[in-house]
């Protein structure tokens, strides 16, 4: 069967929830992936930031093989060695004291939202359950995380939304100050908005948010599902902004492409979850946690994050050079290896043209080309991207 047969079968047998690209990727090594016709691509999507160590990583493969031979799954009725070790590494290298493991970003955010509600409930503040989020944010597709997500298009048709979410304009500290009330349990923010278009908050904004939360006695929760695990050149993006949250969520890259999410918190907050309050059958199971442990050790190994920062800066400077040459680029945005160019036109056609040249990039928020390569991307691979972009933009927009 060729890829066309599979594409037809997909239409017949799989829910039509995705506007899928008409190729089927079957293998990969590092930043390269190969489709079912043997065509090679350079991957600047990396499973939407879920493959920080790239594809076909032998260390991850061996870890999974060895763990699978010992034990794939038990249940959180038992102590799980790699889960405990992963929790230790994540908390020792962050603001957090405790970790809870689940299977996705949405689930990690659900956990955070439940934790915020429970934290104030435990203090007798039963009306304090509102969570404030920002316009343009993305927090997931479950009912509560949809209600948290600051984009009405995703909620359409799924009304009524879960109660208790308030949205304020992105980067507007006065609007947030006005919105915070005695009912506010938490402010939930992506340090850099990913799906919303790689939006970096204005200088000083997150620090002011931290101050507002402290003043109001509510929690600051950071959704680092996309920005975490080294993506910005720091282990966690909040380190770029000189603040610490009370709660943080992780997923995407945390286990190198194996499904996993995590909710991290300080002891003070985490203690509101006691036996029976929150759970997940697969969360932090031996297989996923062993991969998470391997990935965390790699990212924390000597020189890894410094290399992410260096290649991130290089990608940034190459994109800036393109922006100075091509009128059609409105802005270059991002930190580390989470970078984007905002175009003065829709980006979908450009994405298809780049794909024809063997480059996989993602378009989000209609006009934004988002670059989320594996964190092991090389300067030469970045040069291939920017050369192809240069060529394509010259044809599309005129230099
Ligand atoms: C992708 C993403 C999510 C949702 O993660 P899933 O694993 O798809 O549930 C939540 N928040 C942010 C910031 C994301 O980028």
TrEMBL record:
It holds the Pfam family Aminotran_3. Its cofactor is pyridoxal 5'-phosphate. CDD domains: OAT_like. This is Acetylornithine aminotransferase. GO terms for cellular component: cytoplasm. It comes from the Bacteria. It is an enzyme of class 2 (transferase). Pathway: Amino-acid biosynthesis; L-arginine biosynthesis; N(2)-acetyl-L-ornithine from L-glutamate: step 4/4. GO terms for biological process: L-arginine biosynthetic process. It comes from Desulfomonile tiedjei. Its main location: cytoplasm. The modification N6-(pyridoxal phosphate)lysine is found at residue 252. Its EC number is 2.6.1.11. One of its GO terms (molecular function) is taurine-pyruvate aminotransferase activity. N(2)-acetyl-L-ornithine binds at residues 141, 280. Binds 1 pyridoxal phosphate per subunit. It is found in: Cytoplasm. SUPFAM superfamilies: PLP-dependent transferases. May also have succinyldiaminopimelate aminotransferase activity, thus carrying out the corresponding step in lysine biosynthesis.
């Amino acid at each position: 069967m060729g890829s066309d047969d599979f594409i037809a079968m997909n239409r017949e047998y799989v829910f039509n929830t995705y506007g899928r690209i008409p190729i089927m990727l079957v293998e990969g090594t590092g930043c390269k992936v190969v489709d079912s016709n043997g065509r090679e691509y350079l991957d600047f999507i990396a499973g939407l930031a879920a493959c920080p160590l790239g594809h076909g990583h032998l260390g991850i493969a061996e870890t999974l093989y060895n763990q699978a031979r010992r034990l794939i799954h038990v249940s959180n009725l038992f102590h799980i060695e790699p889960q405990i070790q992963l929790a230790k590494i994540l908390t020792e290298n962050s603001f957090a004291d405790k970790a809870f493991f689940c299977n996705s970003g949405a689930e990690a955010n659900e956990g955070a939202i439940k934790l915020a509600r429970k934290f104030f409930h435990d203090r007798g503040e039963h009306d304090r359950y509102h969570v404030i989020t920002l316009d343009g944010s993305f927090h997931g597709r479950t009912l509560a995380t949809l209600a948290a997500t600051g984009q009405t298009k995703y909620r359409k048709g799924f009304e009524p939304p879960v109660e208790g979410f308030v949205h304020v304009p992105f980067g507007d500290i006065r609007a947030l100050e006005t919105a915070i009330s005695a009912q506010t349990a938490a402010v939930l923010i992506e340090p850099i908005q990913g799906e919303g278009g790689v939006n970096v908050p204005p200088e000083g904004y997150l620090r002011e948010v931290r101050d507002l939360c402290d003043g109001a006695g509510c929690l600051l929760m950071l959704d680092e599902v996309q920005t975490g695990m080294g993506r910005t050149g720091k282990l966690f993006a909040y380190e770029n902004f000189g603040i610490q949250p009370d709660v943080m969520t992780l997923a995407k890259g945390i286990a190198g492409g194996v499904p996993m999410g995590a909710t991290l918190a300080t002891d003070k907050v985490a203690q509101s979850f006691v036996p029976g309050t929150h759970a997940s059958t697969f969360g932090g199971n031996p297989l996923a946690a062993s991969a998470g442990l391997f990935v965390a050790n790699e990212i924390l190994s000597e020189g890894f994050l410094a290399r992410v920062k260096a290649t991130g800066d290089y990608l940034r400077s190459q994109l800036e050079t393109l922006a100075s040459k091509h009128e059609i680029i409105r802005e270059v945005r991002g930190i580390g290896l989470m970078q984007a160019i905002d175009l003065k036109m829709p980006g979908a056609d450009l994405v298809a043209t780049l794909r024809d040249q063997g480059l996989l990039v993602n378009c989000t928020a209609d006009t934004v080309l988002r670059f989320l390569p594996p964190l092991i991307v090389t300067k030469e691979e970045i040069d291939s991207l920017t050369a192809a972009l240069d060529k394509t933009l010259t044809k599309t927009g005129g230099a």
